Amino acid sequence: MTSDSPTTPAESAPEQPASSYNGSPFHHSRYDGIRDAVRDNERRALREGPLDRLGRVATIGMVVTMGILGGLGGASFAVWQLTDEGFVQSGTRSPQTVTVNQTDSVTMISGVAAQAMASVVTLEVRGNAQEGSGSGVIISEDGHIVTNAHVVTVGGQEAEPTIRVSTTDGRLWPAEIIGADALSDVAVVKIDTGFPLTPMPIGDSDQLNVGDQTIAIGAPLGLANTVTNGIVSALNRSITVGSADTPGEEDGPNLFDFDLPFGQAANYGAVSLPVIQTDASINPGNSGGALLNDQGELIGINVAIASNQVGSQGAGSIGLGFSIPSNYALRIANELIETGDASHGLLGATVTDSAFDPDATVSGAEIDSVTPGGAADEAGMRAGDIVTEFNGLPITNRIDLTAQVRTLPGGSETTLTFVRGTQSFTVKVELDELG
């Protein structure tokens, strides 16, 4: 599966050199200055000689001129590169500032956060009965923002909410919903700023390894531009979460919570999602925010957390957070931008866990029945077959299979491995379109 960068519609806003708004030290031009400093210092480091990778990234991440924000007896430093517009104003305080106290030991995480911050936004959503907040990621210069479907509907409880987006220059923008897809929990909103925004660089989520560094940026509990870090703790994980609009074919318990703020409950159905698991702290309000790699590239859209609480009241990070892989999220986002709808594959079979079958000898998704003329039927599958691999990925239960089938668009051709009796078969399957 591949993912392309979002297609910018032909009617995108005309490019302007910069916004005329100069009232905030958090204007996007400041971030451009940071990126210039990073590039300049990287070239300098290459001229001076090789450095180990971590040391190089830490060195190039932040070589900046600083403005003192604190007072005597506890000064802190805002990380900014001075531009030709002048000095950063002193005395300014904001959670949108990337701040370090030890300027001689700035980390890779600080560098990634400074580069990415201009591409992360906070969403405030208000409906007739409910309101909430979440995060989003800018994916095009003309204002398209990817977030979660449950953010823009306040957990499926608001059909036509009012949405305002807060950008890193401190301004609020009205937003319109371009499209929302319940099965992937991906939505796209758009703001019209009149000047080009800074889209987030996109990484390849198919190339991740367990143990890779991760950085999460979002607005937990409304605290905009909060940065946490961790590692990829598992890949090819599948979970079930709540959704307001799911086909009857989906089933299974809702084991994981959307990170809705302030204990709000989603209007639950059940939907299966393939996710990246991370121990970077994700909390209520991080939904729709960015999960980045150590190059500052988007690898996931934060979506849910595991909780040891009953229900979502009081839920918070316990080191098990989940993100929609960027390749999947961006495919859905592009389709929503282009057509307003998203495509999902359909196998044409009902499945259960083979662990529930006392005669099963392998773990997988056991076929309970097939739809006559459907994709599974055409591939020669029948009740009792146990699917152990789909599209090159291991399948351990029905949630895995459902999630991976939905990841591909309808009409996709892929391979599927199943066990029948004592024999294993690999067949080609052309998926139907989920209506």
What does this structure look like?
This protein has helices spanning 28-48, 53-61, 108-116, 149-152, 326-339, 375-378, 398-407, and strands at residues 65-68, 77-80, 99-100, 120-126, 131-138, 144-147, 162-166, 172-181, 186-190, 213-218, 226-241, 257-258, 271-278, 290-292, 298-305, 321-325, 345-346, 349-353, 365-370, 386-390, 393-394, 413-420, 423-430, 432-433. By secondary structure, the protein is α+β, with helices and mostly antiparallel strands. It has a 6-stranded antiparallel β-barrel with strand order 4-5-6-9-8-7. Strands 10-11-13-16-15-14 form a 6-stranded antiparallel beta barrel. Strands 18, 19, 20, 21, 22 and 23 form a 6-stranded antiparallel sheet that branches. Strand 10 (213-218) and strand 11 form a beta hairpin. Helix 1 crosses helix 2 and helix 2 crosses helix 3 (108-116). The two termini are 21 Å apart.
